[in-house]
Amino acid sequence: MGISYNEREKLLGFAVFLLWMFAITYKSGQIIMNPLLLMFNWRLHEATISINGTTRVVRILKQGLLIPGAQKAQTIQDFYITRD
């Protein structure tokens, strides 16, 4: 599919697509993130955690805001996933 300046509908559709992709990337703060997760208010956080006296920085996927304090989470491929 080519885009020329003579075809206003295609040019407008392409502009809307680029704006949509920018909004998704901006909201997530991540280049690679599933857009469906963003639509359902899931966010990717970076947090410092302590497990059995060992402290490290991890990524946590949570629906809504991450509040400091004790959390229950599951690990899936180096990510922690938690829900309220």
Describe it.
Keywords: Membrane, Transmembrane, Transmembrane helix. The chain crosses the membrane at residues 12-33. This protein has 84 residues and is α+β, with helices and mostly antiparallel strands. The chain is 31% helix and 32% strand. The protein has helices at 8-28, 35-39; strands at residues 42-51, 54-63, 74-76, 79-82. The radius of gyration is 19 Å and the shape is elongated. The termini are far apart. The mean pLDDT is 81.
How would the global form be characterised?
Answer: elongated
- What structural class is derived from the secondary structure elements? alpha+beta
Biggest sheet: strands, sense, closure? 4 strands, mixed
Helix amount, in percent? 25-40%
Mean pLDDT: 81
Estimate what percentage of residues fall within beta strands: 25-35%
Low-confidence stretches: none
Domain unit count = 2
Strand arrangement, major sheet: 1-2-4-3
Total strands: the figure is: 4
Distance between the termini: 45 Å
Please trace the helix and strand order, writing H or E for each element. HHEEEE
Rg over CA atoms, rounded to whole Å, is 19 Å
With helices defined by DSSP (H or I, 4 residues minimum), what is the helix count? 2
Task: Considering the chains and any ligands shown, give keywords for the structure.
alpha+beta, 2 domains, elongated, 31% helix, transmembrane helix, four-stranded mixed sheet, transmembrane
Please outline the helices and strands.
Blueprint: H1 8-28, H2 35-39, E1 42-51, E2 54-63, E3 74-76, E4 79-82
Parallel strand pairs: 2-4
Antiparallel strand pairs: 1-2, 3-4
Transmembrane segments: 12-33
Keywords: Membrane, Transmembrane, Transmembrane helix
